Amino acid sequence: ESIHEAWETQKSIYNFTQPTLPTVIPVDENQALVNVVSFSGMSPVKLADTFYIDTGPNIVWLTMTGQSEEYVTNLVGFNFLIIPGVGAGFHFKVQFPRLSSRRSEADRVVVKFDGVEVAEIPMLEKMEDIARETFLLKQPITVGKTIIRATIKNVTKEIGKDAMQQGLSDQGAGGFFVGLLAGIAADIAVDATENADLRISQFFPSYARAVEISVPPGTYNVTVEYWNGKNLMRAVDHGSREFTPGGLNLIESYMLQ
What we know:
By secondary structure, this protein is of the alpha+beta class. It has helices at 2-9, 127-168, 172-193; strands at 32-40, 45-56, 59-67, 73-82, 91-100, 108-113, 116-120, 123-126, 207-215, 218-228, 231-243, 249-255.
């Protein structure tokens, strides 16, 4: 009943056909009940999107960078605003996490006994979609906390920079130069500590599939094939397996791509 309810109430996650529930007792006690579980793909990762605000005399520069799946930071966008009266020297950084998908390329998984296809393994769970829904559910709180934290840190830093520069301004060019270097050092220090929380488990698969098969007892050569359309991506040979009535006849297969 709970499984049926999940498909009815969480359609954004369970957007695939509900699989047939397992049989507790085989119809024929002389048959062997074989359970095949398959995992494919990899869980999503968190990447960082960073926003910078810098000011010059009467101008504001807006810069955005984003991480690729290889964790390489690239320039995403740049713009500027002409705002009369804005002073130079303000620097603000805020960084947000972004969930990046690593979905499985396999759209069909089949199991073969002795080279003969006996079943297509239906989808049981999309762990990636669950991770995404959880991430989106927490995102407003994460964004709010990040903005508040970054604002407090950057405003405190700017107040400290102004106070330090005013204190050094009466020491001539040398004091101005020291104040400039100290301000840059403060910007770098705050930037280094203002980072998004990118912690996430990266070792779960994207999809889980499962099927229950009733076969005559005996020894079979088991192969699980992963397909993308008409292209065979991988055939996992599980070797010779003996299946018996009432035994733990379990096949576990995976392709983490």
